[in-house]
Amino acid sequence: xxxxxxxxxxxxxxxxxxxxxEKKIIxxxxxxxxxxAKSSFYIDLRLLPSYPKIFQKINEMAAEIIKxxxxxxxxxxxxxxxxxxxxxSTILSxxxxxxQLLLRKKAKEHGTKKILEGRWEEGQRILLIDDxxxxxxxxxxxxxxxxxxxxxxEQLFLFIYRSETPVKELEEELGVKITYIIDLEDLKxxxxxxxxxxx
Length: 199
Fold this sequence. Notes:
The chain is an alpha/beta fold. The protein has a single domain, classed as Rossmann fold (3-Layer(aba) Sandwich). It is built from six helices and eight strands. Strands 5-4-3-6-7-8 form a six-stranded mixed sheet, with helices on both faces. A two-stranded antiparallel ribbon has the order 1-2. Strand 3, helix 3 and strand 4 form a beta-alpha-beta unit. The longest helix has 21 residues. The radius of gyration is 17 Å and the shape is globular. The chain starts with a helix and ends with a helix.
């Protein structure tokens, strides 16, 4: 059974990478990242919602992986890290039939001055969604903001794990369990195939 699940996930990875390459959401070459680091590929998943059919297909595949790898009976609500992940968390909350809460980057300075929108109670268990991770630094603040409100961040789901840090180390650093679809090795493999096609 585990072998079948692994095979299904491998096929899903290949399909998603193919979709992303077709729309130039993943590009291979020489790039300088915002951190100043050099990279042989560039990924901008914020472009994906511009292609609604592919966006829906990829989220449907993601939802199936989440259902297989995460015990959704232990999740009360879904939160997307603002702002890139909010379109993903919106569609995933529907596919997973879970409430969505909207986290702000910072609390409003007027009205109720909330940092979290939606109906929730202390102690609820959260599935946190983001498009990808490089270093993990950008995940710390939203995790802490949710914990300060009395919520339990049970899982972090990522479409792409592009960090060179081993998953276990990042899980310990952030204090949450991490689930993802595509990792650095998958990207390197896709890059080699793309380079082979060009030669």
